Amino acid sequence: MKDIFKNLVRKNVLALAPYSSARDEFTEVAEVYIDANENPYNWDYNRYPDPYQQTLKNAISVWKNVPAENLFLGNGSDEIIDLLIRGFCEPQQDHILTLNPSYGMYKVSADINHVEVRTFPLDENFKFDRGEFIKNIKPEDKLIFICSPNNPSGNTYSNEDIISICDRFSGLVVVDEAYIDFADTQSMVRYIGQIPNLVVMQTLSKAMGAAGIRLGIGFMDVDLVAVLNKIKPPYNINEASQKIALSIVQNRQQKMVQVSEILNERIKVTDQISHYKFVKKVFPTEANFVLVRVDDADHLYRYLLSKGIVARNRNKQFRCEGCIRFTIGTPAENHVLMQALNEYQNQY
């Protein structure tokens, strides 16, 4: 393990002997498998899946131009978040640092693991000053989470700012790029292998349209992959999810056509919403959603529910007072939304 990581990993994790199966010891194709107490009668799912998802990782490696050894796959990005906190933060001792507002699971996972969460407030346009952020870092901080494009605001943060934070921070900088396929900003994945304390998370849940299979992708130094492999459940990605994910990755151009359609719809939706008199502000977005400040978010939210339309009320979140978040739907779904908003305005 690289010296820069030895003081980051929890001591008990460093000393941990991970669970090992016979198939960790024998990785060739056997004639007979009688090691794992499986039902021996073959069908698609009678055998345990590959615990390290090597075929799927190889396909993602080609797609993202990152060596397979630098990949860790999680049961959604949420599992990767949890494992990073468990692997590197001593409970009641170490901290994580996040922007505020941002994705709520960083705090939930930290709270579950009894790790203190410190937040750095974004300004009213959901931006932050890099110098002030760096000055705010404390010795107890082990992980920094930066969601870019940010949820719920939809804006991105520059690669230059993130690289500067990596250079000034002795812990891990985790960049959550769940929505990067909808953004003009370049992914930080290309810096994997150059910046050892950088971790980048992506997912098949958004642009790739596979939220139901729960497949998160972590790009990181090989030593960090080894730490997460020690503490993950033995078979964290089931065989069905691996097969579906492999098919999606190998046929990803079909999904990129859908991304183009979503981006076109994003332009239409943001333009139409901006003309309603009850709308105070439409925030710029590089994600597949738009955050909108309105006169009465709670009232509009309840009205949309009465029409069978479920949006996301962000009114009680810091800096999002009076805001509703709208995911960009299909043209038909967006038409239904606009009809409802037209009716709402007529009653306004």
Shape: globular
CATH fold descriptor of the largest domain: Aspartate Aminotransferase, domain 2
- Rounded mean pLDDT score: 97
Q: What can be said about the biggest beta sheet?
A: 7 strands, mixed
Q: What class do helices, strands and sheet pairing give? A: alpha/beta
Spatial strand arrangement across the major sheet: 1-7-6-5-4-2-3
What's the N-to-C terminus distance? 63 Å
Query: What's the helical proportion of residues?
Result: 25-40%
The CATH top-level class label of the largest domain: Alpha Beta
Quick one: how many beta strands? Answer: 11
Report the portion of residues in β strands.
Answer: 15-25%
Can you offer a commentary on this structure?
- The protein starts with a helix and ends with a helix.
- 37% of the residues lie in helices and 16% in strands.
- The radius of gyration is 22 Å and the shape is globular.
- It has two domains: 220 residues, Aspartate Aminotransferase, domain 2, CATH 3.40.640; 95 residues, Aspartate Aminotransferase, domain 1.
- By secondary structure, it is of the alpha/beta class.
- A hairpin with a 6-residue loop joins strand 8 and strand 9.
- It has a seven-stranded mixed sheet, with helices on both faces. Strands 8-9-11-10 form a four-stranded antiparallel sheet, with helices on one face.
- The chain has 13 helices and eleven strands.
